[in-house]
Design brief:
Two copies of one chain form a homodimer.
Chain A (H helix, E strand, L loop, with lengths): L14 E5 L10 E5 L5 E6 L7 H12 L4 E8 L5 H19 L6 E8 L6 H11 L8 H7 L8 E9 L2 E10 L12 E9 L2 H13 L5 E2 L9 E11 L5 H24 L7 E9 L2 H13 L1 H8 L5 H9 L11 E4 L2 E5 L2 E2 L4 H8 L4 E6 L5 E8 L3 H8 L3
Helix pairs in contact in A: 2-3, 5-6, 7-9
Chain lengths: 396, 396
């Protein structure tokens, strides 16, 4: 599970770059994405009740037509700052629109980083002028660097599939390391495809993909006020949205890209040493399977046990039993990797050293067989370590 | 907020003691409580779907009449062990009942500690014989020690109030340090009062008190499979349950005792250095106030910021905005101690050093004024430190 060497600018007609403008002390902190001929753009946003003015702006922009560009700063979330914050978001959109010959509402804005600290707007203003001097740059890697905050690495995914007679490509970049919670569109993510998909269908496809990827991943149960995922379609190749085979192939490709992006985010979770994948099988409904998977992935006692390579299946049972779902402990079986630790409601003799060896690998796969239905769900998370505490007690 | 020197055996007619029987390596691990003339006994249990057989037994016992005694072991939760676990619970109840001249269903059983490890039943069996050689011991302190697991201190609360013409006493002991979550009856707790309260009214009063105390406290969002709170009434002094003043006075006294017990639990949260008290004012409904208070108290990013003495009010906003409640960021104000950091939707200049000084004290009080209603709620939690990780990566 490594970041791709390909980036969103490997999609024809997608331009992007990233620079250092001065929000952060030295790293890249300003990116743009420009898709002049986009036929559609879909978006999903945080469900937090406290949102950045950029999210307010982007929601409006999404409703008013096809978004053609995004301007993104990292290092400062421009949130909790009253009218001045909203004014700065609007100015970022206006300036970008002017330089690209677009309307303000065709430009999305994202700001990610610390909340409540005034945005150094002059640095951003001159940065926008500088980065858009040439609006047709193909530096997706630079953009992927510039959107990061506490991330340790860039996060890019590229996949392609033959749909109909054409190679359909989807490329994405994302960021996020802390304040990552399930049940929402978390973090920032930007995707582009060369497919020709109308606005509503692209939105439906993105909603479905986010629901089984970002919404099933968690670092720390906290939810950013800036979370945004945008997906552009350049329209180069037709995908027949009325042809079930073609449409399902596109949805599958988008799901795969979003799942890879979400996994890159949780694997780089603050302080994490490994990815944890929890699969629930045999649930009465998908909703219940999802709730149990998320409960396990969110449990601090599960996360610390896995960090400690401790096959403490008691904590797995505890975490599975927390949500308000159907669950019959007498029918339950629990696996770490291929090893069963608990079967049909009773402890099983297991090879402790063999399971410790599985726990020491990355990723760790945990499976629950509920045996009370046929629905399934998978969630992704990471372990919880002293380093998470260190990073977050001294964030400033 | 210190543990009381008085214990449940300071209530006339309540007997208890604690010994080391051999579940743990050296500390006390077996306690009994015996209230031979109890007029009523109320109980509240975990809402986890995976429960210890002791919880199954106690729920049945509660329905079948007045519980007169409890036998409690720490160091082993006797959970996840199939039929052998259920058999051991039943044998513990039977043996205790035989020695006290009670029926099996008049004896509650609690087992707390590691899940999935077979109970060393012979040690418990000889321990029960030994501890009940004299069933009328007044060693509440010993019992309070014997119910502990990772706790660093005993947790006892005693309060009294003049209700009608009599001094009504309530004493309680509790345990718990990790796997402490809101929205359930968490941990173990045992209370006794000298009041004369019928079974149903005592149950109603306990439900209400738990709802605003244990159910509003959280160490780590995890929920034990053994959680149990029992409350006995000895019947010494009448409380007129039909007299509104007397009944409210009793309910208030019980609430105060339960809140103190819950605060003792979270203050001793695994690795915690301080208690955090979060109050939500001006919410549209109590339900929404509770949801926001619990979201803030549960947020790892809030907990680590407070551990780091960092007045990061952005994280407070983020955590308040997470639950699905009404919240208008433009009307919101946030206080740490008496200092306002965010007012009517905008950042406020504040004295950074003064607030760091407040954060360095124990407890830390955080208040949100929502200004969109008149409902209020308070929740209690603790900070999140490296020590929590250390304790829980190496629990065995």
């Amino acid at each position: 599970m490594n970041t791709s060497k390909k980036s969103i600018t490997d999609i024809e007609g997608v331009f992007a770059s990233g620079i250092h403008c001065g929000v952060k002390s030295d790293k890249k902190d300003l990116a743009y994405i420009y898709v002049p001929d986009a036929v559609s753009c879909a978006g999903v946003f945080t469900q937090n009740k406290v949102v950045a003015p950029s999210v307010v702006h982007d929601r409006k922009a999404l409703k008013s037509g096809v978004i053609k560009a995004a301007i993104i700063n990292s290092g400062n979330a421009n949130t909790g700052l009253g009218k001045s914050g909203a004014d700065n978001t609007k100015k970022m959109a206006q300036q970008t629109a002017d330089l690209l010959g677009l309307k303000t509402m065709q430009v999305a804005v994202s700001s990610t980083g610390i909340i409540g600290v005034p945005l150094p707007f002059e640095a951003i203003e001159s940065g926008i002028t500088s980065i858009l001097a040439d609006p047709k740059q193909k530096d997706g890697q630079g953009a992927a660097e510039a959107i990061l905050t506490t991330d340790l690495c860039t996060k890019q995914v590229y996949k392609e599939a033959k749909i109909g007679k054409k190679i359909i490509q989807i490329a994405g970049m994302t960021k996020g390391s802390g304040m990552i919670a399930p049940n929402m569109a978390t973090t920032l993510g930007y995707l582009a495809t060369n497919a020709n998909i109308p606005q509503q269908q692209l939105q439906d496809a993105l909603n479905a993909a986010i629901d089984m990827s970002y919404n099933m991943s968690s670092v720390d149960t906290d939810t950013s006020t800036s979370d945004t995922v945008l997906c552009w379609a350049t329209g180069q190749h037709n995908v027949n949205v009325r042809n079930k085979t073609e449409w399902e192939a596109f949805q599958t490709l988008l799901n795969e890209v979003c799942i890879e992006m979400a996994k890159l985010v949780v694997r780089d979770g603050e302080g994490a040493t490994k990815l944890i994948e929890v699969t629930i099988n045999g649930a009465p409904t998908v909703k219940e399977a999802r709730a149990i998977a998320k409960s396990v992935i969110d449990s601090p006692l599960v996360k610390t046990a896995i960090y400690g390579n401790d096959p403490n299946w008691g904590r797995l049972l505890m975490a599975a039993g927390k949500p308000d779902t159907r669950l019959n402990p007498d029918k339950l079986s629990v696996f770490i990797g291929d090893h069963v630790l608990y079967q049909d409601g009773d402890a099983v003799e297991f090879d402790h050293e063999a399971i410790v060896a599985v726990l020491k690998k990355d990723p760790v796969n945990i499976t629950f067989e509920l045996n009370i239905g046929s629905a399934t769900a998978t969630a992704w998370g990471c372990d919880l370590t002293e380093r998470y505490i260190e990073i977050n007690t001294d964030y400033n």
